[in-house]
Amino acid sequence: MTQREKRENAPATGSCSVQWILFDFGGVIAEEGFVAGLKTLARRSGADPEEAVAAGHRLVYSTGYLLGKSEESAFWEAMRREAGLAGTEDEMRETVLAAFQIRPRMLDLVRRIRERGGLAGILSDQVDWLDALDERNDFYPLFNRVFNSFHIGRSKRDEGTFRYVSEQLGTNPENILFIDDSRDHVERARSEGMHAIRFSGPDELLRDMDPFCPGIGQKLP
What we know:
alpha/beta; Rossmann fold; 2 domains; disordered N terminus
């Protein structure tokens, strides 16, 4: 067994009753850049922002881009056609990436989890933009594992994804706490036996995490 495998499979020590804590990215670790970016693009293009967001959620999946089955260009072409967005692919991508503002307090929380012997991961319905954001912000090293739909070919829209993640981590679902801002994703995680918290803000999260990791928020910025 490699040192990484030993670290990932080691039992949690100290304060947390769960072995793994998995975080969504957009909307939890960072501001929800997909939604904010599409709204900005829609306003620039003279299109309806809410319709652009609805189209974005639909088309990122139906084009196959979310699961790594198509190129980014297919998604943006569909957004031009169905949502009325205008701009080059590079311009539109940059607008969305810029909207994913990392929340330093959330990274401080991840560091605290790791310092106290816990294991932290990302479970995100993201495309290869997540890799681009890591290149800019270098947050991957803070996490023991990163599950990105673009690379694993699975989405949190499917309950089976949560079973898959548990199997990949080599642990039972009840040893995992999942944090997401989507009510549907939280309910799917719970249906597969995971503990789950719906994120509504850092302060609320620290309160909701206390039963699993007593005192985890003490002295955090």
